[in-house]
Amino acid sequence: MKLQQLRYVIQVAESGSLTAAAEKLFVAQPSLSKAVSELEREMDITIFTRSRTGVIPTEDGMRFLSRDRQVIEQADLLEGEYKGADRIRRVFGISTQHYAFVVNAFVSLVREYDRNRYEFSLRRRPPPVSSTTCGCSAASWACCTAATSTKASSRT
Question: By C-alpha distance, which of 44, 46, 52 is closest to 18?
């Protein structure tokens, strides 16, 4: 099985005939028919019911087409990510205690820069027990962040 064969099958299904698909793919109709037949033989299924008026996917063919489209979509994503000149992605990560101002600043940063060129990650962890404002345990640190947010908003 080759990606080219999978692409052919999708185009045949979308076109409704081997002749129309061959024209859209710029391939000779006998070559297209042979590629589809070889794939059917290899997979041991009949993908299309052929007639003089065109092709119709069989029940097995419908299931096959569903998986086929997923495979092609994933292959296209891989090519898009790794093929070509501009494939360098910079990674920007922050590890911080959970404070609202840090999250807000990080969100502003992500909005400002191109997400296709950068990979952003924010790792939050609870503050150490000694730095909590109310003396709670690190396991229940949410009250401290709420207290910090309340203090910050009362100052404005």
Answer: 52
124 sits in which H/E element: strand 118-125
Tell which residue, 93, 94, 88, 95, has the closest CA to residue 116.
88
| Phi, psi for 17 (deg, rounded to 5) | -155, 155
Residue 119 pLDDT grade (very low, low, confident, very high; cuts 50, 70, 90)? confident
Whether the Cβ atoms of residue 149 and residue 121 lie closer than 8 Å to each other: no
Q: How far apart (Å, rounded) are the C-alpha atoms in residues 97 and 76?
A: 38
Cβ-in-10-Å burial (0-12, 13-18, 19+) of 9 comes to buried
Residues whose CB falls within 8 Å of the CB of residue 2, separated by 6 or more in sequence, listed in order:
none
H-run or E-run covering 140: none
Q: Is the pTM of this model over 0.90?
A: no
Rounded to an integer, the average pLDDT of 4-31 is 95
pLDDT band at 130; cut points 50, 70, 90: low
